[in-house]
Amino acid sequence: MVNTYRSVHRAALLAGAAAALSLLTACGGGGGAGEAATAPSTLPGTAAPATSGVTSATPSVPPSAGPTSPTPSSPPTASPAASARCHTSELEAVLGRNDPGAGQENFPVILTNTSSRTCTIHGYPGAAFVDAAGKQLGPDPQRSPGTPTTVRLAPGHSAWSGITFANPKISGARTANPDALLVTPPDEREPLKVSWSAGEVPISGNESTVFLTVFDQGPGA
Fold first, then answer.
1. For residue 45, which of 57, 62, 75, 126 is within the disulfide window of CB 3.0 to 4.6 Å?
2. What confidence tier does 10 reach under pLDDT thresholds 50, 70, 90?
3. Which InterPro entries is this protein grouped with (predicted)?
4. 162, 193, 160, 164: which is closest to 178 by C-alpha?
5. Dihedrals φ, ψ of 80, to 5°?
């Protein structure tokens, strides 16, 4: 079902993403959709690292023939890939228009670079549905098969990931009506809070799994 979603609904998700981004631009950006949620150190839906961090180390120096003054070691520096990563504070999240089909509900989740620098996104987002009190509804979404690629985002440009689940009225899954969707950029721990007004979502029972796709180049890029 996930492979069908990737092949059949990608173009439709892009169209929905473009419509959401146009609305965001018309409204001047900002607002609650891009507001970073305050969260404890362990967050629901936190994205697992998509890339491993790399630090440079100072090589050991063999002793010389005579006494020498100790050489202070340089602190490790972050790799270019790590320093280029988009941080939560530099991004804004919006939910695109649903494109239902074949018993599926399909939404693009769009992240836009609101900073003044070019940064990158690589891999999958973290995501979690929450109620008005911030309690998570259902388990974390699962990752649908895909090959992560690094997406470069210039200021004002976007990337999107698809979120999809079986229509609970068809599957008969137990449901809940979320207040918001928490979206965590890859390798980040702080989520972005997106208001959810798309109705009930499955949280347990038959075909209740929610799936996420890898980030792809999105509207405005």
1. 126
2. low
3. DUF4232
4. 193
5. -55, -35
